[in-house]
């Protein structure tokens, strides 16, 4: 039985360094190639030695597909392609291809320039790696080679995030990457057609969560900002450069527009400007509202949001500032926070998760006195708010996607084992399909039952046509004679002569002979004649010959008569036919066994 | 047939004590009632998976022995229950059940057995062999005479049959089998057949099919809402409409947005659904890490109840509370769960709008649901698409009779007042007019926000005032405790008198006065200047300030104004009756009578606004008669032509004016009946006759006279044709007399005709006007530009400048086609601009709002100067011709309709002109 094998090198019962190997129909595909945020040693990257111990990966992989630009999905790409060695095609969507190198470069800078690590990939390597990338469009079927084809679907999550449908023959796998089933202010919801893949590999970050309506969250957020601005306070929103930042910007921008507010909004510069540029370009990847209105005005050309300058932080009056990084652990957001922390009119809104140990985490837990470097303490008087804006599908969303795609098997990655266990149970219960959740390095094998296509020779078809019968109907099966040749991974149905010729074999004649005893009190030639006339009356439309050498030929069947030695009245008929005339031959032998009718002259 | 109890099996069976006990019990049972009791007891206890098969065997054994149908029925249902046991593969008992099916005679038991098979079929979705057997069995029993059996067979077919695989040669595919039963004689069977079909198609691959299936399920649910259907995989039963509701709710999260729109729309029309299901649509069981979480809405409610206000200060504020049992969490919620939550969050705004509309329809029929969906609707005020926001505000207004807003909800609603879109703000004002609030704080909050709004967008003045008027009159008791604060009065000290022209102060007064109307104790709290201001506002803004019974103020004014409509109507009728005493147009004193009556009627119209339309109509009509009378009494008729040129001119002018007035009568007033139109046309004929006579007198030469005579004859014929039914009412009138003389007229020469006309015109009596039920005059008021600005609008000559126009139209039919904007420049140039159909909004019945931009341009001027802007109502006589059924837009109608009368098109100005100061500057080089 054919099989599909799936082995996660990363993200198996874990979040981070997504890297999943799939073998399908003799093709090997790597899905995502990410890094782990939590490690700074070798565990940071997936263990590529699983694929091969020595040397390059090119000959072991048919292609690499990157679902979106987050570093836990593409962070190890230059390492894999340039340092381990891979020269095959790498597929990603256009926006991912555009934004990915910016993030990789930033990642490299932090690790090499700031932390001083050596033996890391260089800027040149990133460039070389990106040269191997082939961009994908949504819903475009790309032939990787003759058999392997891939197709990208919209996934929401971040700009350019895609789900991929991988197909070899009639076997197929869908990999979701990260996706979001509820639309937000700048992206739409994930969508896939009913492609019924053999395996659906889905993320399961929020396997055990069902989320509240996003409108409540948005309303809360806007209300808090608005109230603070009306009081004359300053609002600090620490964000990471890409993704949520854009969503919040749009949210505030439209709110400002609607409410005719005048207070300035600033966005601290850096990565963002470059990235915002790409958001402006890839309008087709955004949601309905932005797509429909960009002709009048591109939503990412912010009217109220301006670039931030360090001196603005001391300006009087209300303002809103988006600053990086998101957890208040360093950089501009921390500087601004220090400046504003003393005034209770001000507010800081944390739009995402904060890692333990960061200032963000501390203030969220209600700490009001912070120790700074140099033994200074900082009184936190400003208001601290938390808002969760997350772009992963929740449990309901995952179930919704399964219902959309109707897979035969389900495989969960990118989530915690305990949570997966719960979801797995639910999936098996609701859809009665198998659900797997392999750990890193563990292989899941799924047997499939694909239909095998066979080439049929034109001559054979024409001959079949010439034989008559009903015209071929694509909806009905039909039987025909032919020879199946399996040669070099391909299947062909040809006529037997052609098969012999192609294989260089001699044809063997196969003849059946049989004796039939008959009670007939006539002489041998008379009996033969009687048989001849009998057959003539029964088999109309067949050529029947009475040959002078004492035989009767029906088509190619030879009938001879001889008397038995003991009893001259018992005649022995000798029938002989070739394999091709088996039907007629056995009919004749049955007919003659019944004897000749008496009325014959 | 197999032997069911082979010795080996018996041995194995004897081990589990439970089945043995049952066996013993059943053997002991002497009569059927006992056996039934045992079975009922047994059904209450759970059975382990490994002993299920044994129990099934024992049950079957008893089944064969049993003669009583009710016991067999119970056993059959027990079999179904047992097959659902976790970890038990029921394929081993399929054969047994099918065998029993063949021997069973009782229809009820048959139906129950088929039901058991249905359970087995759903438990074994992956076994094609079993499915095929089940399909065969059900096909066999489809010919049963009992409807229940046929019903179950169809259900079974719908459940186990697959769409794509034709099962075998002799068994036709399931679809066609099911569809055969669409024509069954029993409606219950027909329902089952349709349902089996529709429910399967809901999961079709193609969106059109799914969309059609949604419709089909809906139709079914409307046809047989109350029939009871079982839920497969459990033995509960629910109403069909509930089941269909659940199924359609499921489609709200379909992959195709077209289907989602359709499903959301359909949900709105399923009003019979039970409230339990309805409320599920708003419920999405939240959880976080397997712990139940409260929704933000619930939290807001609790916070409100506990008196605490601000929320979300703490990080883990929404921390999940109780731990959930993993088995009870249903991720693909069965049925309706959360359908609207999904629909309202959808990516496509079409789906969101459909969901909002559906919510509205459902909420209107169920007050409890209205209360529940309030939070969600309020959330929609924050949608990214204005259309959706607007729609949700409208919806909230429509259901506002059912709800009372909480303070926190009101707060969210009021936040939208700062929206920069005028439509949104006005819709919100409209909403506030109909809202019930619960506390005086709410009133205060609303007033505060409205004043803020007024401050930010001064153009909203009228709308805000109106809103406060309703707010005050709806909540007098809540306003009462606020009065001292609102009017800033003090028990001991005199406070400064506020500025009377301050819109904010007027707003407060409007609120207070309207509340005071039904709260007699309130005026005691007013200070002296408040009374003065009342008197002033009552005069200047009488539509906003109600009459109050105020001490020290002359109550006569308010008393006379509130004269009843009936008496006014009576007066109008009497005036008209008086006119009818006039015998013919030359009667002495007739002119005076007409003059007085016109004056009376006009005054009446001013006093009684409800009758102003009718009064205006009468006055105009009478004025026409008066003009006609005057024209006929001119001395010119007795003089030679050359001597009376001057009089001739006035008579001609009168004829023209009458014509114009008749067009106004016909097109400016709504609610006219055929009879009035005939009367108007009659006046028009008289005017035309007058014109003909005058032209015959002045003009030399016969040829033009002959042609105009022919035209006139044609018009008489046209009149006769169109108002055939009205002719009896026109007795003794001008037309009546003409028609009497018709044979003579058509034969005589044109000179003779003129003579006849002249005499009939002078002899014919005044036609009595009968008023219809309601007459409304089309009116338009330009709100913007106000015409008060002294700053000229400067622009470079040759380029265009956009002028915002905002006007309200009342009682205008089809304004998209008839209303135009006219711009008059000081040099006499005039432009007529046809606004886009999209610029008209319909805020209420018989009311339209025109918000548009007109483009102005002119060559350079040296000084700023004023242009006039006004609204025109265009008409076309073709559009009124009663024979034509549905006319096209007025501009197209001339070529579309070939009526014998020449089509007359024109415009009637129906708004006061507004002056706008503009200044085109010469272009700078």
UniProtKB/TrEMBL annotation, chain A:
Gene3D superfamilies the UniProt entry points to: 3.40.50.10890, Ribonuclease Z/Hydroxyacylglutathione hydrolase-like
Transmembrane domains' residue ranges: none
Localization, UniProt: Cytoplasm; Nucleus
Cofactors, names only: Zn(2+)
InterPro entries listed in its UniProt record: Beta_Casp (IPR022712), INTS11-like_MBL-fold (IPR041897), IntS11_C (IPR048662), MBL (IPR050698), Metallo-B-lactamas (IPR001279), RibonucZ/Hydroxyglut_hydro (IPR036866), RMMBL (IPR011108)
GO BP, one annotated term: snRNA processing
GO molecular function, one term: hydrolase activity
Keyword Zinc: yes
GO CC annotations, alphabetized: cytoplasm; nucleus
Keywords: Cytoplasm, Hydrolase, Metal-binding, Nucleus, Zinc
Name of the protein this chain belongs to: Integrator complex subunit 11
UniProtKB/TrEMBL annotation, chain B:
Domain Integrator complex subunit 4/Protein SIEL C-terminal Ig-like residues, every copy: 781-922
InterPro entries with a match to the protein in the record: ARM-like, ARM-type_fold, INTS4_8HBD, INTS4_C
Nucleus among keywords: yes
SUPFAM superfamilies: ARM repeat
This protein's record includes keyword Nucleus: yes
Compartments where found: Cytoplasm; Nucleus
Any one Gene Ontology cellular component term annotated for this protein: cytoplasm
Residue ranges of every copy of the INTS4 8 helical bundle domain listed in the record: 570-772
Top-rank taxon: Eukaryota
Entry's Gene Ontology BP terms: snRNA processing
Keywords, in A-Z order: Cytoplasm, Nucleus, Repeat
Sequence similarity: Belongs to the Integrator subunit 4 family.
PANTHER family: INTEGRATOR COMPLEX SUBUNIT 4
Protein name: Integrator complex subunit 4
